[in-house]
Amino acid sequence: MSDTLAATKSPASAPARPAGTDEVLVVDFGGQYSQLIARRVRECGVFSELLPADVGAEEIARRAPAGLILSGGPASVYAPDAPALDAALLELGIPVLGICYGMQLLAHSLGGLVERAEVGEFGRSDLHVHHPGRLFAGLPAEQSCWMSHRDTVRHAPAGFSELASSTVSPVAAFEDPARAIYGIQFHPEVVHTPYGQQILTHFLADVCGCDRTWTAASIIDEQIARIRAQVGDGQVICGLSGGIDSSVAALLVHRAVGDQLTCVFVDHGLMRKGEGEQVIAAFRDTFKVPLVAVDAERRFLDRLKGVSDPETKRKLIGAEFIRVFEEEAAKLSGAHYLVQGTLYSDVIESGGRKGSATIKSHHNVGGLPDDIAFELVEPLRMLFKDEVRAVGAELGLPERLVWRQPFPGPGLAIRIIGGEATKERLDLLRDADHILQDEIRKAGLYHELWQSFCVLPDIRSVGVQGDERTYGNVIVIRAVTSDDAMTADWARLPYDLLEQIASRMMGELSDVNRVVLDITSKPPGTIEWE
Ligand code: XMP
Fold first, then answer.
1. Residue 288 exposed, middle or buried by CB count within 10 Å (0-12, 13-18, 19+)
2. Is 134 in the pocket of ligand 1 (CB under 6 A)?
3. Where does a domain end: 139, 173, 207?
């Protein structure tokens, strides 16, 4: 490792709430949807962050949020190691909304009765609103909602009004407006609760009195001020991949400090068709960002010679990427800061959420090592993916980059299966992929899919074309829907579209005589083939 990248610098600590905006904190009891609650709050125009269940009243008081939301969680309030509620939280005078386990904790702590129901309530349920209170004001008395619980509140604590019930839950919502404490058994944050967003808005606007001023434009102003304060007149470097995160991070930094930023785009020759040109056109030509574009195709292909094992491919590509980046960084003397497109979901996951059932381990081959001698500039640390897209659009990033499907760091090399990633095979795969994307876009389905791509296995099959026997390549079409890549379903592409794709591939690509469709979900398959 070169001197430039030798020592460790810790990243800038997570910024707190943007100046002048209200904040509602979500106390995370390990629920499946805790992150989603924070996202929905932000969609209402109110800044929100997730804090661990043991955060304590002192820290909350210090942050002085406009409201608190206690999330759901997998525990029962009666379990010996169940996450508890710090009673002092309720003495701060900050409005509180408990959701699912959060509501049960409120009931249990304040003298209500929580019981294990004979049957759990999972999925869609009918909600009967007997008394609208503040949360249901103006909403229908009969509505549906999404439930996921076994314990249930039988009696609200003294001083509370019971607002609603459902088939299984005698008390599905309660309130004590005098103390500004509210509870709902169902999940307002999921789309299956049709009035969920309105119920949350009632809490945020009517109960907490929040100004709803958190928007993409306000994020941009805020981040620009923060970046300027952090960087001063220092030189900044950013590795651009063409993905949404590094693109938006780079644009924000460029807005903040102009030509103090230099972007480095390493074209490893494993990109999709036209992708490198698009990145260069957007950044160098449109946004006038100083950009070093490194054509490293030859280097990467040399490294990949004779390699067919997937993990070896990944490791070689990752190591070579770092080497190229280091070389370029060393040429830019005086760069002290490095931009990274870390998202809020990465921050939450790498912090290790307490009490949650599973934690995703995310891998990013082609990313940079932790021990780099730059101070990190992470302007997306507080943002969710959809907010990053909104900021990208607001900054004028082309639609293709804003909505680009996820693409793995090692690129097309890990889509050539069981064989070496040669230039010839990469070109064939690139052309096949281009046809697939083109047809999927024309059919208006690109945004519906999490990912769509082709795989080229190192096998041949017999065919007949123009009266001649052929022994050609097989192209696999893989298209999936997903929310987070942890699970995925194969996309039901229309037959006519599949036919059009297959006939174009076999007509336009020499040496392809068979096209097949992958109908495997994840699990048991993974999205990529290796
Ligand atoms: P799998 O194949 O594990 O993929 O279902 C889940 C998501 O991760 C992407 N992926 C990668 N991304 N480097 C990356 O940066 C990799 O080595 C890598 N392998 C898979 C994949 O495209 C999907 O979005």
1. exposed
2. no
3. 207
The last residue of one of the domains, among 402, 437, 459, is 402
* Partners of 23 in beta bridges: 47
For the Cβ of 239 lying below 6 angstroms from any atom of ligand 1, the answer is: no
Q: Which atom of ligand 1 lies at the shortest distance from residue 529's CA? A: 2
CB-based contact 502:468 (threshold 8 Å): no
Q: Note whether 292 and 265 are within 8 A (CB).
A: yes
Give the tens place of pLDDT for each residue, 335-374.
999 999 999 888 776 655 555 433 223 344 345 666 667 8
- pLDDT of amino acid 372: 66
CB-based contact 251:279 (threshold 8 Å): no
Instruction: Please state the domain count of the chain.
Output: 3
| Cα first-last separation, the chain | 29
d(CA 185, CA 435): 48
The arithmetic mean of pLDDT across residues 2-30, rounded, is 61
Amino acid identity of residue 126, one-letter, is D
Residue nearest to atom 3 of ligand 1 (CA): 526
Q: Residue 487: CB within 6 Å of ligand 1?
A: no
Q: How far is the CA of 413 from the centre of ligand 1 (A)?
A: 12
Other Cβ atoms within 10 Å of 60 Cβ, number: 19
Q: Which residues are catalytic?
A: 100, 187, 189
Strand order of the β-sheet with 142-155 is 47-52, 23-28, 67-70, 96-99, 181-184, 173-176, 161-166, 113-129, 142-155
Q: Taking the CB of residue 506, how many other CB atoms lie within 10 A of it? A: 18
Q: Is 184 within 8 Å of 99 (Cβ atoms)?
A: yes
C-alpha 3/C-alpha 450 separation (Å) is 40
What integer is the mean pLDDT of 153-182? 96
Domain assignment of residue 524, yes or no: no
Count H helices, E strands: the chain?
A: 14, 20
Does ligand 1 have an atom closer than 6 angstroms to the CB of 318? no
Cβ(527) to ligand 1 under 6 A? yes
**Among 266, 345, 363, residue to substitute to test ligand 1 (most atoms within 8 Å of Cβ):** 363
Which atom of ligand 1 has the smallest separation from the CA of 450? Answer: 24
Residues 58, 160: one domain? yes
Which whole-number Å values give the CA distances from 429 to 74, 189, 316, 432, 500, in the listed order?
45, 41, 20, 5, 17
pLDDT digits (tens, 9 = 90+) for 396-435: 999 989 999 999 999 999 999 999 999 999 999 999 999 9
What's the pLDDT at 356? 47
**CATH number of the domain where residue 283 is located:** 3.40.50.620
